[in-house]
Design goal:
Layout: E1 6-9, E2 12-13, H1 19-30, E3 36-43, E4 48-55, H2 57-74, E5 90-99, H3 103-120, E6 125-129, H4 140-143, H5 151-156, E7 176-180, E8 185-191, H6 196-206, E9 211-212, E10 233-234, E11 241-248, E12 253-260, H7 268-281, E13 286-292, H8 297-310, H9 319-330, H10 340-343, H11 345-349, H12 362-370, H13 378-401, H14 410-445, H15 452-493, H16 499-524, H17 530-562
Parallel strand pairs: 5-7, 6-7
Antiparallel strand pairs: 1-4, 1-5, 2-4, 2-5, 3-4, 8-12, 8-13, 9-10, 11-12
Helix pairs in contact: 1-2, 2-3, 6-7, 8-9, 13-14, 13-15, 13-16, 14-15, 15-16, 15-17, 16-17
């Protein structure tokens, strides 16, 4: 696994209508090596563009600095108008830890960026969320209160002196808020109304901060206060959710605009359902929703599984199908096409060149195998045959979950199918891993060997590559054997009409194990580490014997059941 540190940066620029300005800003980001621009999401009504990019920390904050600088040069806040709250050309610039970096270190990078922006660009900078240096500045809404129009007077107040940069009003750039936070999902839910007041009523129902309490529960009654004079609030239904209602002229509808600040506490689908229920109580219907910026894949997977379970449907279907269910159920395509490949972080970061085989169609895969190239070879084919075998078992589970009269068993079959999907995905991953193992050996062979040091380096690289080439087929064997549990349960309890499919799955599983076993043996044959070879071949033999036993048991039972 890679130990490379990655952080995400999601700056919001106060320009959503001029594509040339937006492009000039994002061009600055793309100048920085190792930084990948993932998404540019402009909004005309909000006159705001949300940009997402990812990379190593130092490179990310360099790209952020260049983008903030360019935005300050091209955006004149004195001329700006839009639906979204804002106080600067670069309104907010959060850093989010993604891989191999904790929040504390991410905070240090946020502070480093803020210091540079304040000193070199002379833009007032406030630190918020985890990077906040004062407790009352953690909340972005509080920091941004008064917005751009109130910024000049705000900067005169010693209590609102910026954390970095001059306490001086810059009419062109305004101020910038920089911080570090956990992953936030910006999510808008569409309503069949144009009323902002009614949309706000729904927003107050669901957001954590709720609404102020009024005497007599009247919307016009006097505000109830505690002994210190603070307004008493009635909390909303959802934790870690900020929400307001607004009207989007571009679409001609009102929306509930939400920030889900902790998707583990309140996932997307729970927020959607809560808004739907509260809207219905007020005579309003939810018609769809919209994601602003990017989301982790798990957000849509969890939503898809949630809606499938509500229908008493199996969740053990393909990732693509689960995400399709999520998109349809949430109405994410109501206002325009929704392409998961453009909205899901993992898909945008996924380098297809590292997985050339499993991205091929069947004909291309067969043609590549039949070519004069030595890879893909028996190892990759073994893994793929194993994936096909467990796919058959998973199919039987999904068919069984739909069988008429078996409605009370759908959860059992769903769990079996889900387990099958996980095994299938691991075997598909190993299809390309086996070819990568072969490539590592070929690369080691090509290393120079003129000097003693070069020979030693080459020998070590060859040893490492050889052991990797042995470990991959061992993993294929172990993973394929896991599939027998799914196949066994489907022979015993699955739809009788599909029992032969489970039998074919067992034959495929054993073919995968047998083929991988041969790969272990041939890769061990010329390896001079006898202790390693003895251990690996002994393990492989035990796995092979176990597979043969389980395959024979399943196939025998299938044959007894289907033989006339």
């Amino acid at each position: 696994m890679s130990s490379r540190q990655l952080i995400e940066c999601v700056p919001n620029f106060s320009e959503g209508r001029d594509p040339e300005v937006i492009r000039a800003i994002t061009d600055e980001i793309e100048k920085v090596s190792e930084v990948r621009l993932l998404n540019v999401d402009p909004g005309k009504a909000t006159n705001r563009t949300v940009v997402t990019f990812v990379g190593p920390p130092e490179q990310v904050i360099e790209a952020a600095y260049l983008a903030i600088k360019k935005a300050g040069e091209l955006i004149d806040m004195s001329l700006h108008s839009g639906e979204h709250p804002r106080m600067g050309a670069t309104d907010v610039c959060p850093l989010i830890p993604i891989a191999n970096i904790d929040m504390a270190e991410t905070v240090r990078y946020a502070k480093k960026l803020a210091l540079r922006v304040g000193q070199e660009l002379e833009i007032p900078v406030y630190l918020y969320e985890e990077a906040a240096q004062k407790p009352d500045r953690r909340n972005l809404a509080i920091v941004r209160s008064g917005e751009y129009e109130g910024l000049e007077n705000k900067l005169k107040d010693p209590n609102w002196a910026p954390d970095h940069g001059p306490a001086k009003f810059n009419a062109n750039t305004g101020a910038t808020v920089i911080g570090a936070r956990d992953f936030l999902v910006a999510y808008n839910i569409n309503l069949n109304t144009t009323s902002v007041r009614r949309a706000n009523a729904v927003a107050f129902d669901v957001r954590e901060n709720g609404r102020v309490k009024r005497k007599g529960d009247s919307i016009k009654g006097p505000i109830e206060r505690d002994k210190d004079g603070n307004a008493i609030r009635v909390p909303g239904l959802l934790k870690s959710v900020k929400a307001i209602g607004w009207y989007i002229e571009e679409y001609g509808i009102a929306q509930i605009s939400m920030n889900l600040t902790d998707i583990n506490t309140t996932p997307l689908h729970i927020a959607f359902d809560a808004v739907e229920k509260c809207a219905q109580k007020r005579g309003i219907r939810v018609t769809g929703s919209e994601l602003v910026g990017l989301v982790p894949k798990k957000v849509l997977i969890q939503a898809g599984e949630y809606f499938l379970r509500k229908q008493n449907r199996s969740v053990g279907v393909s990732e693509e199908e689960i995400i399709k269910i999520a998109v349809r159920s949430l109405g994410l395509d109501e206002l325009g096409p929704f392409d998961p490949k453009e909205k899901v972080i993992e898909y945008l970061l996924d380098d297809i060149s590292n997985k050339p085989l499993i991205n091929m169609n069947l004909m291309a895969f067969a043609d590549e195998t039949a070519s004069e190239s030595p890879a893909p070879g028996g190892g990759s084919i073994s893994a793929y045959v194993g994936a096909l075998g467990i796919s058959l078992g998973t199919m039987v589970a999904n068919l069984s979950s739909h069988k008429r009269g078996w409605d009370d068993k759908w959860e059992f079959y769903s769990e079996v199918a889900l387990q099958g999907q996980k095994i299938k995905d691991e075997l598909l991953h190993l299809v390309d891993e086996d070819t990568q193992a072969f490539n590592k050996i070929m690369s080691a062979i090509k290393l120079p060997k003129a000097s003693a040091a070069e020979k030693a380096n080459r020998k070590q690289a060859l040893d490492n590559a050889t052991e990797y080439a042995i470990e991959i087929p061992l993993r294929v064997m172990e993973t394929a054997i896991k599939g027998y549990q799914v196949l066994e349960e489907m022979v015993s309890q699955g739809n009788p009409a599909s029992i032969s499919d489970a039998g074919v799955g067992a034959l495929c599983a054993h073919t995968a194990v047998h083929g991988a076993y041969m790969n272990v043996l041939i890769n061990c044959k010329d390896y001079d580490n006898s202790a390693y070879v003895t251990s690996a071949t002994s393990k492989a033999k035990a796995l092979f014997d176990e597979s043969a036993k389980q395959k024979e048991s399943i196939v025998q039972r299938v044959m007894e059941a289907i033989t006339p």
